[in-house]
Design a protein that fits this description.
Length: 724
């Protein structure tokens, strides 16, 4: 093992020139507009009403009538990111201003949206387990099945618990053309020609649309090798699990049938099964943060443990009636299971028990399991009661979820089964009169959490805890206005409340004294967030800009800090105040050149003590430093294009000289991608970390348990797709 010495980057001059070109050519802004459009309209004003959102509204809603910051990520942008990396959350870090940098691991700890945890959905079904958030829900399907991603920035209660930071809804593809079509995609990646790093993927999507019937079938297999940093050392494997040295299998089937008068009714069945499992060919080779030696990995089998995995399955039946009592009815019934097993640990203090082995010698690993079933329903009516421009959407959601966490090797209960039931009616209305749209709505969350009697583990003194049932009732309003001004300007303002549970499993498992009951654990209280936001946008023939400013506050927030002894996260229930502003922009320099840029800044404040002032800045575990991303795309012919991306994170020093002191080093990375279409299919080349820059991952700069990792060095990927 060697200590890394500073070295000169040969490409530094090129990197600086590229960054200067991007900065000088780009104005700030745009968040209401999509992050990428599937169509190129080089000589037209971007017509925002052509883009619609269903997330949070349950029926299509034109973006230019939504008083809030919405990011739409098209399938073209998803495919572009896949050219570079298999990281499922990388597309969010690249295109969503308020989304934190990716961890490059299976866990997505710290990957917040505007400083809070977002609710991840797949076709409207939650992939998040707020009862016991394991930070592994960013990897739940193969991204090639995703048509677009809708991101509602900021707290929202429209889709249920978990959306304190916003909503990220991955929407699956659907057949759009009459007939049949199959797409075969293959990809090979390597780092510096190292055999250990070789990764490959093969996937097949089959689509059929015949009259009133349609079907999509998708299947893929992805085998990933080991990652290396720019100095050629293996990158460490996260304590919670890694995507390197793994195999992932995905199966997706969705069939639909339209019937009734004018085919106004539709029924659809969806099956999604995803499984990613570690190969167990490597073990941690811990470094030394003080000596700046990063964690690495060495060949070997995990000590008496089982492989880590992510297992996400869901089944759904949806019914739609577009002409029921003058409106449109949507009903979805679903069942979902989510399971994740973490890496085995040797000597982890919170998992030791002398009944099984002498302290400090027990190998253990934990598993989180969640089972969901529920129903989502809504009915919308435009021009209600004959009032032109008045639209109402009302519905009712029902959820039953059970989650628990076990210590897998010794079959011990770590977090007891938590049973949450939610009943939530809602109504949302909007009224458009000329250039003005006013919206207002309310959702009533009526939930209950039931936990049986249980006993904590040895680390928590084997404390008996009396079970009980907690009630969560909250009325969550929202309101907003958007005004479309002359010359293609618009302004908006909004207010909304968000609601979530505070990772309930952590305070339950940490009870360490007798006489406690579930009803007496104050940390189980809900997190309710008040959010205020305002912004503007402008869309011209060659330039589009937008910006927004937000402020959110939770009286009893849920923030993470590091225990100085165990180096594990501690959940703190103290007030949290977040402020930030975001800009995005697009400039069509010519018919062949397009530049996009985004910038975000956020600050989070909380208390150092239970009763002190709100003066402690939140760090990387909650709020990431300022971010500036830009890209230049040159479509040099009808068949080919080249894109250069630049991702910059600014340095940050917070709480200097007092509790919570933290220093984050800034970094700038470049990526290059190119594609070309031929009669033999589409070929693409992706180069991640183009200049092979050495850097420490932003989240790894926190002194946390086994997380001192360098980022990946240069990764070269070659992809091919063909339709037949």
């Amino acid at each position: 093992m060697k200590t890394r010495l500073p070295r000169t980057q040969p490409a530094a001059a090129i990197s600086a020139s590229l960054l200067f070109a991007l900065l000088s050519a780009t104005a700030f802004a745009q968040q209401v507009a999509p992050a990428a459009s599937a169509k190129d309209k080089d000589d037209e004003i971007l017509k925002m009403e052509e883009f619609t959102v269903t997330t949070g509204y349950r029926s299509p809603k034109a973006v230019n009538q939504i008083p809030g910051a919405i990011t739409l990520i098209s399938s073209a942008e998803v495919e572009h990111t896949q050219m570079l990396t298999d990281d499922a959350t990388a597309v969010l870090a690249r295109t969503v201003p308020g989304y934190a940098p990716t961890t490059q691991q299976m866990q997505n700890t710290g990957e917040t949206l505007r400083g809070r945890v977002a609710l991840r959905l797949f076709d409207g079904i939650s992939q998040t387990t707020p009862l016991r958030e394991g930070s592994r829900n960013g990897t739940f399907t193969d991204m090639d099945i995703v048509s677009q991603i809708e991101v509602i920035n900021g707290p929202s209660a429209s889709e249920g618990i978990g959306a304190a930071g916003g909503i990220i809804n991955y929407i699956s593809k659907s057949p759009t053309k009459e007939g049949t079509e199959a797409t075969l995609r293959t990809k090979f990646s390597t780092e510096g020609g190292r055999t250990e790093s070789n990764s490959w993927r093969v996937g097949l999507n089959y689509m059929m649309k015949q009259g009133n019937k349609d079907l999509i079938f998708g299947s893929s297999f992805n085998k990933r090798g080991m990652s290396f940093d720019a100095d050629g050392r293996r990158v460490g494997m996260g304590a919670s699990g890694a995507t390197v040295d793994s195999e992932a299998k995905n199966l997706f089937i969705k069939g639909g049938y339209n019937f009734g008068t004018n085919n106004a009714q539709r029924v659809a069945l969806t099956i999604s099964r995803f499984h990613l499992e570690g190969g167990a060919h490597y073990v941690q080779n811990l470094g030394d943060r003080d000596k700046k030696i990063t964690d690495s990995a060495k060949k070997g089998a995990p000590p008496a443990g089982k492989t880590a995995f992510n297992d996400f399955n869901q089944y759904a039946v949806a019914y739609k009636h577009n002409d029921l009592m003058g409106g449109a009815l949507n009903v979805q019934v679903y069942k979902a299971s989510q399971a994740m097993r973490f890496n085995p640990e040797l000597g982890g203090s919170d998992k030791q028990d002398p009944l099984f082995a002498p302290l400090g010698t027990l190998v253990e690993q934990s598993e989180i399991n969640s089972q969901k079933r529920g129903m989502r329903s809504s009915w919308s009516h435009a021009d209600l009661l004959g009032v032109k421009g008045l639209e109402v959407n009302a519905g009712f959601d029902y959820l039953e979820e059970t989650a628990q966490q076990r210590l897998a090797l010794t079959d011990r209960l770590w977090v007891p089964p938590m049973n949450y039931t939610s009943k939530a009616p809602f109504v949302q209305a909007s009224y458009t009169q000329g250039p003005v749209t006013v919206t207002a709505g309310v959702r009533h969350e009526d939930g209950s959490l039931q936990v049986d009697d249980y006993t904590t583990v040895y680390f928590a003194n084997r404390s008996f805890v009396k079970g009980g049932t907690l009630s969560y009732k909250e009325t969550l309003p929202n309101a907003g206005v958007i005004v479309r001004l002359p010359e293609h300007w618009s302004v908006f303002g909004s207010y909304s409340k968000g609601f979530t549970l505070p990772n309930v499993g952590i305070p339950l498992r940490n009870v360490n004294y007798a006489g406690q009951s579930v009803a007496g654990i104050l940390d189980l209280q809900a997190v309710v967030v008040d959010n205020k936001e305002g912004g503007f946008s402008w869309h011209g023939k060659t330039v589009s800009l937008s910006a927004s400013y937000y402020k959110s506050f939770s009286e009893l927030g849920a923030s993470l800090s590091i225990d100085p002894i165990t180096k594990d996260f501690i959940l703190q229930r103290r007030p949290v105040e977040l402020k930030g502003f975001e800009f995005t922009s697009e400039w069509k320099v010519s018919k062949t050149v397009r530049i996009n840029a985004l910038y975000s800044h956020a600050t989070g404040m909380t208390r150092t003590t239970e009763t002190g002032p709100i003066n402690r800045e939140q760090g990387m575990g909650n709020v990431s430093p300022d971010k500036f991303n830009a890209s230049v795309r040159w479509k040099y012919s009808a068949k080919g294009s080249v894109t250069i991306d630049q991702d910059t994170l600014r340095a940050r020093d917070i709480n200097v000289g007092r509790a919570g002191e933290e220093h984050t080093t800034g970094l700038t990375l470049f990526n290059l991608s190119s594609s070309y279409s031929t009669k033999w299919g589409d070929f693409s080349l992706g180069i991640e970390n183009l200049t092979n820059k050495y850097y420490i991952l932003p989240w790894a700069q926190l002194d946390q348990f086994q997380n001192y990792f360098a980022g990946r060095g240069r990764v070269i990927s070659v992809s091919h797709s063909i339709k037949f």
